[in-house]
């Protein structure tokens, strides 16, 4: 297992999840590897390159699991801080999948000068002109992808937008046109397997249609990039696509479980908290893990089963039936029993783990991960194998 030194220094004695001060984030490396292998096998069957999005874990140590000690794989990032950290870690094929702010182009060019092929993303002629001018002034080629809007979720332009070929021409004339990229963000609200398959098909069709329009205008397209965690696990045909992206899948979360993209047992990220009080008159158990530990994300509130701020397990990861984190203030979490179930007897000092709604948001509340391996049995609380730092900032 790859590991880095703990932020608290070398460990001289074996530590378990019963030892660090709570709250803290835990990653189960066994489940993470299982999740990684599942999507890699799918990408291999579909005949496309898998370009994982590292925005969920933001960790070089987690990313190392993606390529098992072989040369670093291509990755997607959501911040230039991630791009810079991954470049420092030896990654040279990176897509920065957030619309480019021209003010950030000097940092992009600094990475290009280091030999990193860093692609930028844009969806307007103004951005394309900024990239072209910066490339000309610096004497560099800045590879760029045009963002395609496949479902009205966020940024991008429609495949039939007249601006598509205008943007493509500006980039091509600057030597910067790399391809097109789309993200089916609305797939997070596709509640059935059929809806997810349709979202995946539409995502593919939008990206391929945009690429074909550019090629018909005499503009070469190398990369046709698609992906979200739900569509990546639902897509059946990627003809015309060159690469598949996803990020949440390394950890999964309750939102993905609610979409049946994964099972609750696949969730690899949790937060350890401690019971610090009781309010029996309200049916509350109080912990020291509030929204600063879990985030405010309430993604399951729009699903068939609302899991509040998270489901509760014991320290070994066994679900405590009908116990839910239903409320949170900054440093306090409130656990209640669902549907008039009996509240379990959990004395002050009891340690629990909370499974999050949204892995990306919960991970972002922490500086790093305490790593365990649930495939290893033990008579004590799970042993901490390593402490892996996260990348922060923008």
The amount of helix comes to 25-40%
Number of domains: 2
Q: Give the name of the CATH superfamily of the largest domain.
A: Alanine racemase
Q: Tell me the number of strands.
A: 17
Order of strands across the main sheet: 2-9-8-7-6-5-4-3
Radius of gyration from CA coordinates:
22 Å
GO molecular function: D-serine ammonia-lyase activity
Pfam families: Ala_racemase_N, D-ser_dehydrat
Domain D-serine dehydratase-like: 268-373
Family: Belongs to the DSD1 family.
How would you describe this structure to a colleague?
There is one protein chain. With 394 residues, the protein is of the alpha/beta class. It is built from 11 helices and 17 strands. The chain has 2 domains: 204 residues, Alpha-Beta Barrel (TIM Barrel); 130 residues, Beta Barrel (Lyase, Ornithine Decarboxylase, Chain A, domain 1), CATH 2.40.37.20. The strands form 2 sheets. An 8-stranded parallel β-sheet has the order 2-9-8-7-6-5-4-3. Strands 10-11-14-13-12-15 form a 6-stranded antiparallel barrel. A hairpin with a 4-residue loop joins strand 10 and strand 11. Helix 5 runs parallel beside helix 6. The longest helix has 24 residues. The chain starts with 23 loop residues before the first strand and ends in a 5-residue tail after the last strand.
Describe the secondary-structure layout:
Layout: E1 24-28, H1 29-46, E2 49-52, H2 60-67, E3 75-77, H3 80-88, E4 93-99, H4 105-113, E5 117-122, H5 125-138, E6 144-148, H6 163-173, E7 177-182, H7 193-216, E8 223-226, H8 229-232, E9 243-246, H9 254-258, E10 269-279, E11 284-287, H10 291-294, E12 310-313, E13 319-328, E14 333-337, E15 351-355, H11 359-363, E16 368-372, E17 386-389
Parallel strand pairs: 1-16, 2-9, 3-4, 4-5, 5-6, 6-7, 7-8, 8-9
Antiparallel strand pairs: 1-10, 10-11, 10-15, 11-14, 12-13, 12-15, 13-14, 16-17
Helix pairs in contact: 5-6
């Amino acid at each position: 297992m790859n590991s880095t030194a703990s932020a608290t220094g070398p460990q001289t004695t074996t530590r378990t999840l019963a030892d660090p001060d709570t709250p803290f984030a835990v990653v189960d490396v066994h489940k993470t590897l299982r999740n990684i292998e599942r999507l890699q096998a799918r990408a291999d069957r579909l005949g496309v390159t898998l370009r994982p999005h590292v925005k969920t874990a933001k960790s070089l140590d987690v990313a190392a699991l993606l390529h098992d000690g072989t040369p670093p794989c291509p990755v997607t990032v959501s911040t230039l801080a991630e791009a810079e950290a991954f470049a420092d870690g030896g990654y040279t094929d990176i897509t920065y999948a957030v619309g480019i702010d021209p003010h950030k182009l000097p940092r992009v060019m600094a990475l290009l000068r280091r030999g990193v092929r860093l692609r930028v993303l844009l969806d307007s002629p103004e951005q394309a002109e900024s990239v072209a001018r910066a490339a000309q002034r610096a004497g560099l080629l800045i590879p760029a992808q045009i963002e395609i809007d496949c479902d009205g979720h966020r940024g991008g332009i429609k495949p039939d937008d007249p601006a598509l070929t205008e943007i493509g021409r500006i980039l091509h004339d600057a030597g910067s046109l790399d391809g097109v990229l789309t993200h089916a963000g609305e797939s997070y609200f596709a509640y059935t397997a059929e809806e997810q398959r349709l979202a995946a098909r539409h995502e593919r069709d939008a990206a391929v249609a945009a690429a074909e329009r550019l090629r018909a205008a005499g503009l070469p397209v190398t990369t046709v990039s698609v992906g979200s965690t739900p569509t990546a696990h639902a897509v059946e045909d990627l003809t015309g696509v060159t690469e598949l992206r996803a990020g949440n899948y390394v950890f999964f979360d309750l939102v993905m479980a609610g979409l049946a993209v994964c099972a609750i047992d696949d969730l690899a990220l949790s937060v350890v908290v401690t019971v610090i009080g009781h309010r029996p008159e309200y049916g509350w158990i109080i912990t020291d893990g509030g929204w600063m530990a879990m985030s405010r994300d309430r993604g399951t509130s729009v699903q068939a089963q609302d899991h509040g701020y998270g489901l509760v397990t014991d320290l070994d990861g066994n679900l405590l039936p009908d116990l839910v984190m239903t409320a949170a203030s900054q440093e306090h979490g409130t656990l209640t029993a669902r549907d008039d179930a009996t509240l379990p007897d959990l004395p002050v000092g009891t340690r629990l783990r909370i499974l999050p709604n949204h892995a990306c948001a919960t991970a972002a509340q922490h500086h790093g991960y305490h790593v365990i391996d649930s495939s290893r049995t033990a008579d004590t609380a799970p042993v901490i194998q390593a402490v892996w730092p996260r990348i922060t900032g923008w």
